[in-house]
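> forwarded from #structure-qc
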């Protein structure tokens, strides 16, 4: 485990370097001149002159070649300085830190809701294979996985906020305001986890040791909970890290629709205004979180399943 962890940690800087370089290049291929956009925002209704645009490009550091800009940015980022926003002129790191808590709350609520529903429904669907519960669960999972998050979000707003008036549609600050965005964000990973747990449970229930446990006269509840569930949940542990990446990317749309003041809403605003430092900082920040989450999920999976540790040692 120690050697494996060292190897994984050694690859993280290289992966982050590649992600940051690609995102930096793609950002600068986007149409529009950030210097001109900044001047128009500072002076609404006025067309900036070419001289003013050139001066602003120098001020923003956009007058140097792209490789030099990236080297300057990465050298500062290594010290925790991700630059300043073109629009607000505030440090990017401070803006990301301020928006992190709302996004983490929403992501944790969505992931918790997904697991709370997916685990029991997946187990029940496997035990009642081919029955009414199984058919309904599989159909719901198909719809949840296929429907885009923005369509789910608008549907939830229309039903629960407009028609029924049960929950607030927008805002941040209360538990009630988190219900609809958490549901909208959780449906896709919920569907994926439910199908994964169902398939894993079906495979485990067909193993010899499960038949042996039943032959000993153990109750079905004991067989499922104490013998089958642990192994059936192993794939879900590995998928949790992947789902965290999906939740963070999906939060960009969901937070914008529900006016949730998190990282996603910050990212959308920065992209619309060509605020390159904020977008670049967001991409790098999310990459770090996702890579660490996947590493943690992988380590947890190896701790839960000794076979993976033995295979690594044999290799």
């Amino acid at each position: 485990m120690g050697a494996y962890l060292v190897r994984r940690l050694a690859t993280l800087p290289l992966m982050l370097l590649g992600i940051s370089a690609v995102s930096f290049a793609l950002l600068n291929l986007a149409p529009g001149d950030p210097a001109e956009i900044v001047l128009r925002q500072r002076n609404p209704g006025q067309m900036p002159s070419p001289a003013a645009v050139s001066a602003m490009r120098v001020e923003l550091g956009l007058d140097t070649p792209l490789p030099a800009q990236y080297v300057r940015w990465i050298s500062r980022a290594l010290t925790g300085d991700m630059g300043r926003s073109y629009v607000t002129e505030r440090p990017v790191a401070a803006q990301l830190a301020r928006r992190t808590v709302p996004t983490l709350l929403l992501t944790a609520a969505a992931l918790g809701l997904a697991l709370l529903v997916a685990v029991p429904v997946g187990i029940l669907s496997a035990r009642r294979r081919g029955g009414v519960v199984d058919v309904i669960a599989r159909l719901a999972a198909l719809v949840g996985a296929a429907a885009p998050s923005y369509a789910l979000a608008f549907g939830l707003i229309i039903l629960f906020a407009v028609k029924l008036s049960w929950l607030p549609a927008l805002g941040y600050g209360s538990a009630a305001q988190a219900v609809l965005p958490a549901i909208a964000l959780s449906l896709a990973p919920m569907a994926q986890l439910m199908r994964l747990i169902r398939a894993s449970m079906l495979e485990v229930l067909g193993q010899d040791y499960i038949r042996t446990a039943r032959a000993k006269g153990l109750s079905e509840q004991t067989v499922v909970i104490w013998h089958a569930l642990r192994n059936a949940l192993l794939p879900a542990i590995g998928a949790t890290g992947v789902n965290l990446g999906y939740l963070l990317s999906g939060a960009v749309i969901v937070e914008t629709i529900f006016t949730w003041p998190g990282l996603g809403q910050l990212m959308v605003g920065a992209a619309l205004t060509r605020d390159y430092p904020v977008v670049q900082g967001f991409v790098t920040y999310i990459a770090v979180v996702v890579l660490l989450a996947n590493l943690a999920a992988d380590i947890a999976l190896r701790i839960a399943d000794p076979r993976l540790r033995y295979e690594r040692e044999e290799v």
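QC bot note: Residues 311-315 have pLDDT under 50 and may be disordered. The CA atoms of residues 115 and 190 lie 7 Å apart.
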